[in-house]
Amino acid sequence: MFGIIVGTHGIFAQELLKSCEMICGEQKNVRAVTLIPGEGPDDVVKKYEAAIAELDCEGGVLFLNDLFGGSPYNAACRLVIGNENYGIVTGVNLPMLIEMCSAQMMDDGSDIMALMEKAVEAGKNGTQTFHASQISDDEEEDL
Amino acid sequence: MNIVLARIDDRLIHGQVATVWSKVTGCQRIIVCDDEVAKDTIRATLLKQVAPAGIKSHVVDLDKAIRVYENPKYENEKCLLLFTNPTSVLYLVEHGVDIKSVNIGGMSFKEGKHQITGAVSVDDKDIESFKKLNEKGIELEIRKVDTDKKVMLMDVLK
C-alpha cells in the first residue's frame, strides 16, 4: 500500500478529501495537510512527517499538491529528494484524487513513477468541456 | 445480456456510478431504464454525454429495456442497469428479466416519502414494489459504493 498526502494552501486539501469520500467512501490511507496563513514550509514539513508516520507507506508516498512552486509543494520536495519511493504531482483535482484512491484500493504494486503518471493522466482527463454545439446524435450508438 | 449490476439511484449517472461502479463491475454499457427519463429528451441527451471513457450509455423506456434484454445480439454484453425506482425494476422482473440482486444507491426525499436511511427515501408505492421483489427472492441491498457494508433494505423497512 502506498500513502496519499494531499497538501494545499488553506483547507482545500481537507475539503477535497471530503468531496472524494462523498464519491468513494471513507479513505483510511489518505491524509490532508494544510498550510494556513502564518505558517511556513517548515511547519508543513512537520505536518507531512506526522502524516507519513500515521500512514501505511510501504509502497511509497504520493504527494498531491495544489500549486507547482508553492510552499506545500516546496515542503514536499524536501522529503521527496531523499526517498526514491516518494513522488509529487501538482495541480491536484478531484478526478486525480479519486483515481489515486482507487489505485490504492486495487494495490497492484505499481511503483511510484507509474502512479505519478496515472495521476497526471486522470487530472488531465478530468478537464472536459461541454457546449450545446457539441451534442451529436449518434444513431449508431442506439441499442 | 449479462447484468453485472442493477441499481436504483435517482441521480442516475453521477460520481459514484461513473467512477466507482462502472470500474468495479467492468461494464461495457450503462443502460438507464425509465419511462419518464426516456421521454425527457434533454435529460436523456445529457445522460449520454456523461458516460465514462470506454463505456456506452443509453436511455430506454421499460419496454425497450425488455426487448434489448431479449436481443441475442447483446447476449454477452456486460450491462449496468440503472433505475430511478423499484416499480420499474419489478416491471422488468415480471417480464422475464433475470435480476437476482438490486443495489439501492440513492432515492431522494420528496414530499410524501419517508427517509429510511441517509440516502434512501420511499413512499407506499416503492414499499409495495420492494415487498414484491423480496417475495421473489431478490436481494435488496443498500450501498452507496462497493466498499460499503451491505444494509438489507427489508431490515430497515420494518
Record keyword descriptors for this entry.
heterodimer, A: four-stranded parallel sheet, 5 helices, B: 158 residues, alpha/beta, globular
List the SSEs and their pairings.
The complex is a heterodimer of chains A (143) and B (158).
Chain A lengths: L2 E7 L2 H13 L5 E6 L5 H14 L6 E5 L5 H10 L5 E5 L3 H13 L5 H14 L18
Parallel strand pairs in A: 1-2, 1-3, 3-4
Chain B lengths: L1 E8 L5 H11 L3 E5 L1 H5 L1 H9 L6 E5 L1 H9 L7 E6 L2 H9 L6 E6 L7 E4 L2 E3 L1 H12 L3 E4 L8 E2 H5 L1
Parallel strand pairs in B: 1-4, 1-5, 2-3, 2-4, 5-8
Antiparallel strand pairs in B: 6-7, 8-9
Helix pairs in contact in B: 5-6
| Low-pLDDT regions of chain B | none
Give helix and strand order of chain A, one letter per element, not per position.
EHEHEHEHH
What characteristic shape of chain B results from the CA principal axes? globular
Instruction: Provide mean pLDDT of chain A, rounded.
Output: 94
Number of helices of chain B: 7
Radius of gyration of chain B, in angstroms, nearest whole number:
15 Å
Helix content of chain B: 25-40%
Poorly predicted tracts of residues of chain A: none
Counted beta strands of chain B: 9
Mean of all residue-level pLDDT scores of chain B: 95
CATH class of chain B: Alpha Beta
Q: Beta-strand level of the residues of chain B, as a percent range?
A: 25-35%
What does this structure look like?
Chain B: Its main location: cytoplasm. Chain B: It comes from Selenomonas ruminis. Chain B: The modification N6-acetyllysine is found at residue 73. Chain B: It is found in: Cytoplasm. The complex is a heterodimer of chains A (143) and B (158). By secondary structure, chain A is α/β, with parallel strands linked by helices. Helix content of chain A is 45%, strand content 16%. Chain A has five helices and four strands. Chain A has a four-stranded parallel sheet with strand order 2-1-3-4, sandwiched between helices. The longest helix of chain A has 14 residues, at 41-54. The termini of chain A are far apart. In chain B, a hairpin with a 2-residue loop joins strand 6 (114-117) and strand 7 (120-122). With 158 residues, chain B is α/β, with parallel strands linked by helices. In chain B, the strands form two sheets. Chain B has a seven-stranded mixed sheet, with helices on both faces. Chain B has a two-stranded antiparallel sheet with strand order 6-7. Chain A binds chain B through residues 22-25, 98, 102, 105, 125, 130, 134-135, 141-143, and chain B through 15-16, 19-20, 23, 31, 45, 48-49, 53, 56, 58, 60, 64, 68, 71, 74, 144-145, 147-148.
